[in-house]
Amino acid sequence: MSFKSIFALAAVAVAVAALPPRRAACSNGRTASDAACCVWFDVLDDIQENLFDDAECGEDVHESLRLTFHDAIGFSRNLTNHGQFGGGGADGSIMAFAQIETNFHANVGVDEIVEAQRPFALKHNVSFGDFIQFAGATGVSNCAGGPRLQFLAGRSNISQPSPDLLVPEPSDGTDKIFSRMEDAGFSIIDTVNLLASHTVAAQDKVDASIPARLHGLSFWVLLTISYQGTPFDSTPSMFDSQFFVETLLQGTLFPGNGSNVGEVESPLHGEFRLQSDFEIARDPRSACEWQSFITDHQAMVSKFESVMQRLATVGQNPRALTDCSEVIPVPKAVRLPAATLPAGKTLKDVQAACAATPFPRIKAAPGPTTSVAAVPPS
Ligand code: HEM
Ligand SMILES: *[C@@H]1O[C@H](CO)[C@@H](O)[C@H](O)[C@H]1NC(C)=O
Ligand SMILES: *[C@@H]1O[C@H](CO)[C@@H](O)[C@H](O)[C@H]1NC(C)=O
Ligand SMILES: *[C@@H]1O[C@H](CO)[C@@H](O)[C@H](O)[C@H]1NC(C)=O
Ligand SMILES: *[C@@H]1O[C@H](CO)[C@@H](O)[C@H](O)[C@H]1NC(C)=O
């Protein structure tokens, strides 16, 4: 080959490399970096409208986020080391073998969202493992101040039932929870980061007599409710830092008929406190990370995004999956108000537990003592 033709070839190569990568055409004029991502635009449209009630951050979103964890945490290196099946992690087994896994004690209540999601996964012919993580990532993007999670597609639809006793219980002590999480690949700090999910969480099974939120409502939300006069059930929850404040307040009451197993006293009428959240907030190994989120919403979100990449791929090889994150909506830009002490509380009510850093001097919300409005029955 002459010098000239080598030069010409090189020029062509440079020109080709400079072309924008070819994008696959998907429905409604959208494009994707990989044709395998197109189906997820259709799933997105469908679940935002028909599962999440027009892209709300409501109960089905909360349950979908919880389900990402309950599927993925079914994974144990310890069991594998003992020659037993350790579970497949984020493999959709909780949906494929719902009749087994949703009967595990720690999965109480999860059957509802599994059965609500299943028809969508079947309709769009996507694997159960992919669907569960996609629904969680899409759902939480609807929450004000929420994260934009990565979404990788391509998990196999073939799975085996997870062994029982791998999902942490709210009545478990921190030693037990931390070693279980470690066994699935998550450090103590990772576990605190994952619990940012409880900023948009409610319970209705630990105390079945009263559905109640685990997080409070910032002053801003309470103002919005009274301003708009809207009933509480149409008020979306926010991915804000209030949860990390309120879990550190001294408990004074049971919101329902407590004390139930896994429940401890909460500081506010209508708010429910899990024993596990109470203990992780105060354990010297986790307390400083916990407290740090009170004044750093940005860190809370970015650390959650980061740890969720790993949760969503427990038991999977992420390099063998296709990155379809572009399908996940960008959460609306909102400026959340700073975390406050609920009205009626002072810094004296705080059980600060981080030895290294003093509790931040956050303001108290004005007005009469707050109570957290009830969650409507579903
Ligand atoms: C580390 C140990 C954890 C324990 C002991 C725990 C325990 C619980 C319990 C008991 C409930 C209430 C269920 C009910 O009665 O309806 C709950 C709700 C929830 N959990 Fe966790 N959880 C943990 C970690 C996680 C993680 C890692 C995630 C997600 C990444 C998560 C997401 C949620 C969500 C979103 C809800 C609210 C569900 C709803 O409102 O319907 N949890 N959790
Ligand atoms: C590890 O697995 C073995 C075998 O099932 C079990 O006896 C042991 O309690 C497990 N250890 C932990 C820390 O879970
Ligand atoms: C996934 O497996 C379930 C059975 O567990 C089956 O009903 C469904 O059609 C499968 N979906 C795909 C995409 O293969
Ligand atoms: C559904 O997905 C499975 C597995 O990916 C594939 O074998 C099957 O042909 C698909 N069915 C339809 C109707 O597209
Ligand atoms: C609360 O009520 C439920 C039934 O709704 C019952 O199973 C539970 O034992 C009660 N708990 C307490 C502490 O009374």
From TrEMBL:
Ca(2+) 1 binds at D71, G89, D91, S93. GO terms for biological process: cellular response to oxidative stress; hydrogen peroxide catabolic process; response to reactive oxygen species. Heme b binds at H198. Residues 1-18 form the signal peptide. Disulfide bonds join C26-C38, C37-C324, C57-C143, C288-C354. Gene3D superfamilies: 1.10.520.10, Peroxidase, domain 2 (1.10.420.10). The active site is at H70. Its EC number is 1.11.1.-. Its cofactor is Ca(2+); heme b. It holds the Pfam family Peroxidase_ext. Binds 2 calcium ions per subunit. Binds 1 heme b (iron(II)-protoporphyrin IX) group per subunit. The keyword Heme applies. Belongs to the peroxidase family. Ligninase subfamily. PANTHER family: CATALASE-PEROXIDASE (PTHR31356:SF66), THYLAKOID LUMENAL 29 KDA PROTEIN, CHLOROPLASTIC-RELATED (PTHR31356). This is Peroxidase. The lineage of its organism: Eukaryota, Fungi, Dikarya, Basidiomycota, Agaricomycotina.
